[in-house]
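Hey Z.,

So I finally got round to the magnesium ion thing we talked about over coffee. Here's the setup:
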Amino acid sequence: MSVADGFGALPKVNSFAGLPADFYTRLATRPLKAPRLLHVSREAAARLGLSDVALTSPAFLDVVSGTTPMPGGDTLAAVYSGHQFGVWAGQLGDGRAHLLGEIAGPQGNWEVQLKGAGFTPYSRMGDGRAVLRSSVREYLASAAMQGLGIPTTHALSLVTAEDPVMRETVETAAVVARLAPSFVRFGSFEHWAARKNPENLKLLADYVIDRFYPDCRAAGAACVGQAGSTVTEAGAHAPYVALLQAVVVRTAELMAAWQVVGFCHGVMNTDNMSILGLTLDYGPYGFMDGFDARHVCNHTDTNGRYAWHAQPAVGHWNLYQLANSLHEIVPDADALRGALDQFEPTFLAAMQRRMMQKLGLSDWQAGDETLIDDLWTLMQASHADFTLTFRQLAHAPGMTETAMPQVQIDLGDTVRAGLTPFVDLFLDRDAARAWLARYLQRAARDGQAWQDRLDGMLAANPLYVLRNHLAQQAIDAATQGDPSEIDRLVKLLANPFVAQDGMQAYAALPPAWASKLEVSCSS
Ligand code: AMP
Ligand code: MG
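And the result:
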């Protein structure tokens, strides 16, 4: 294979296309006018085995813009159903997504999917397109989550085109190519349960188990073994219960990972919940600036169903819908309930572990829960900046003798001279000092050396997150045809825990205009 070889040279598997035809519709993408590559992720390309040279070829642009099919691929749109905002919505599906195929890459198998490459039988009232604004947001969010170490789909490329797209105003069309081992959703299972089609439900469950959760098969074998040589009913169902349990664990871990960086997904409908526990379908998401437990990032979510504080419970509720679906092939409701019951302890343990890391404490001690609850309360009262509160705790008075220079490295001239790190993020500074005194006492009882604690805290608390106003600046530039701000953010967010020279403004508190930004489901 030459370095210039593109998609054509990569081995294809197309496993999803091997499922029966009622799981999807085979179709072609609809080309855009004069598509242009705005940005490409070399890191994502490397997962597939695409060389840097291949990314510059017209053939690459042809595939990621939906102009030509992926050689060796099998283009299709998948069907699924789901609960949207808590209400059964019936059949949905890839309304503007095309699965191009699955590549057996050097770092595992990856499905390549285009978002915005034209309508499909599942488009309902939609046009099958995506606008540049929301495509930039998906592209950046995928990079930001990856940099934070949070499971996510990966954005490979961002293409823009001349075609106008009607939303509230006329906008520019764009296509994101994204990668995941699978785009199967909770809603993919709900679809066959609602259709009373246990055969297809079982096929899908077997597909997911065999490819992604092979250990669940062993759970069935263990049951069979216990009962002797015959396949008992419990043994036959055990892999599906084990699958649910594995998804419960991954989802609970994902919820904790979101909570501790102030990430709000915005549209946690069951059709946006990955069966692999990945963050999937970036729409009106947001990283919180000022802390508000009731923060709702999606302007359309007027009831606050998907507020920050509600996300773990919604994740659990969504898992109930998955369990309900699996009940069609697992008659033993108690076994499914047992798997669901793993959610709360798994989530709480994950939160505890992550909060310990954020606070630089090496073990959980009596009183820690109150200490942490009191910090949230303090942050809530002042709407203290989520990211900077945790980051600056490492620089707070009493943490190190050289606290101030460290904050200067993080924030440079964007901080006032004479600032007291951490404390000055709160309106009630006395309350902040009082909490800090308790925290310092607690930290002193911890076995770690202070320097180790500091290093650990800086490695657990990002300095840079994809604040809405940063994404907006990148969108504004991209709309003028300038991808440089996207490039700057992608590089910055790849390494969000380390202060980078000249990037202090990207860590600073948001400007006043940021509070007026509204993101909604319109995309
Ligand atoms: P979302 O809220 O983006 O996850 O979308 C919910 C459903 O609507 C999915 O099935 C999407 O494929 C579909 N959808 C959203 N926008 C469009 C569009 N512009 N054209 C076609 N389908 C769309
Ligand atoms: Mg979706």
